[in-house]
Amino acid sequence: MEIGIIGAGIAGIAASIRLAAAGHEVTVFEANEYVGGKLSEVRMQGYRFDAGPSLFTMPHFVEELFEVAGQSMEGKFAYERLPIVCKYFWEDGVQLNAHADVFKFAAEVHEKLGVKEKTIIRAYADSRYKYRATASTFLHKSLHKRSTWLTRDVLKALFKIPRLDIFRTMNSVNKSRLKDPHLVQLFNRYATYNGSSPYKAPGLLNIIPHFEHGIGAFYPKGGMIEITKSLFGLAKSMGVHFQLKTKIDEIIVSKKKATGVKVGEWQHNFDRIVCNMDVFHAYKKLLPKEKAPERTLRQTKSTSALIFYWGMTEKFPELDVHNIFFSDNYELEFEHLTERKTVYDDPTVYINITQKYESGDAPEGGENWFAMINTPHNVGQDWDDIIKEARENIIEKVSRILGRDIRPLIVCEHILDPRLIEEKTSSHLGALYGTSSDNRMAAFLRHPNFSRQIKGLYFVGGSVHPGGGIPLCLLSAKIAVELIGQEGEQ
Ligand code: FAD
């Protein structure tokens, strides 16, 4: 079949590889002059930064694409496991190294906070339990096909519901089992991995620590951009055509079937269409005449982010690749993000420094800082004002905790805010992860990987099932392509 893909985000590229491997002729249309969407890079004055995602988990989903393509990954993509997943800093002087090895991390927590080692070990075991009980059904399959529900795995998961913490918030689960406020904050933070609030998201999201400590946090050689570059190279080697600087204006629908795409007056017919554009804009912009699933499209969007890419003139040996400087009042920070739709003046700051692994990412003696805070999605706030204040607050906070004035060390700066994220990737309201998981039904309320009304139209990417983040986007491509392959059977 001839298949058209709208968008060369990571899910669009992954879908193209799987479809080409299945023998289809594939063309990917991308609005930007570069591929990768959020997974791209920024360069300035001798510094290089990964533009969006910085944490690489579940590398086997990337490896699987090379396997599907029948090609070796050697020399094309490499990664290594991080010995320390993240360094955590608090205003009261506490610092924790989150060792990848759970036992080592538990020993560190015991030494620094006096918390029993078994408390930490149990928390990770619980995370693993939740992952094993749910992943095969809720992440790897379409939730919108009857066949998914008629399996043993589902039956098994149903029996495990009481231990899945679906009816309590992440925060209440973490508070009752961890008690120490530093640890509660550290484990609550995992809600932000899909743009949610730990004070609203169900305790089931405590599955996420297993991704980092059980399966591992990894560093791709050359930076996150290598995920995009290597998969783009793989797709091209399989004959996938990429048409950059081509923003699709419309999906042509005839007799309730998607039959092609249109750019201005130009149009091309396809047998199937895979849409990697945010599903909200896909309905509103590309399918304006079709009935949209309004309830699905109205789901609360995930948080967004404000990022300062700073070229620093000095090195900070006390920092690692991933560093977090926690807010003194996490609950109030999330109330600002979710209720007041603004940024708290003591924000949690995440700093990513790839220069720790890639000496070429900064000039000699310097470091490339990607300093990010969570923000609400864009509802028309005065972002220029927010950026100005947040910049000051971040600089003061980090300088205070490190005991070193960072302001004079910033030699160049680039800023990414929710408005720009939406502009560059067509993500509705600049949300990083599609819809948030701030309610317990969120998993079921994401848009399926296919259209119920329009035959031959499929959806992939962070705005649809199973959700945002690189691993889930890669899974969305796998599910959609499997559905295309099973068409005759449905
Ligand atoms: P997107 O990256 O959203 O790209 C969609 C593409 O489609 C874009 O290139 C766009 O130009 C194109 N497009 C849209 N409409 C059209 C059209 N009409 N015609 C042609 N082309 C079109 N994930 C992690 O796993 N780890 C992290 O640490 C992490 N951190 C993040 C930090 C930030 C700042 C951001 C922004 C995201 C982060 N994420 C992280 C989330 C992750 O980046 C996304 O979930 C993922 O990259 C989304 O991929 P996607 O396939 O949905 O497409």
Descriptive report:
By secondary structure, this protein is of the alpha/beta class. The protein has 17 helices and 20 strands. The protein has helices spanning 10-21, 60-69, 102-113, 117-138, 146-149, 152-159, 170-178, 181-188, 208-215, 225-237, 279-286, 294-297, 330-340, 383-402, 418-425, 442-445, 470-485; strands at 2-6, 25-29, 41-44, 47-50, 56-57, 79-81, 84-89, 95-99, 217-220, 241-243, 250-254, 257-263, 266-269, 272-275, 304-312, 322-325, 349-352, 367-375, 410-416, 457-459. The strands form 5 sheets. The chain has a 7-stranded mixed β-sheet. Strand 3 and strand 4 form a beta hairpin. The longest helix has 22 residues, at 117-138. The mean pLDDT is 94. The structure holds flavin-adenine dinucleotide (FAD). Flavin-adenine dinucleotide (FAD) binds at residues 6-12, 29-32, 37-39, 52-55, 247-248, 276-277, 305, 307, 421, 425-427, 432-433, 461-462, 468-470, 473.
Record the SSE blueprint.
Layout: E1 2-6, H1 10-21, E2 25-29, E3 41-44, E4 47-50, E5 56-57, H2 60-69, E6 79-81, E7 84-89, E8 95-99, H3 102-113, H4 117-138, H5 146-149, H6 152-159, H7 170-178, H8 181-188, H9 208-215, E9 217-220, H10 225-237, E10 241-243, E11 250-254, E12 257-263, E13 266-269, E14 272-275, H11 279-286, H12 294-297, E15 304-312, E16 322-325, H13 330-340, E17 349-352, E18 367-375, H14 383-402, E19 410-416, H15 418-425, H16 442-445, E20 457-459, H17 470-485
Parallel strand pairs: 1-2, 1-14, 2-10, 7-16, 14-20
Antiparallel strand pairs: 3-4, 5-9, 6-9, 7-8, 11-12, 12-13, 15-18, 15-19, 16-17, 17-18
The protein binds flavin-adenine dinucleotide.
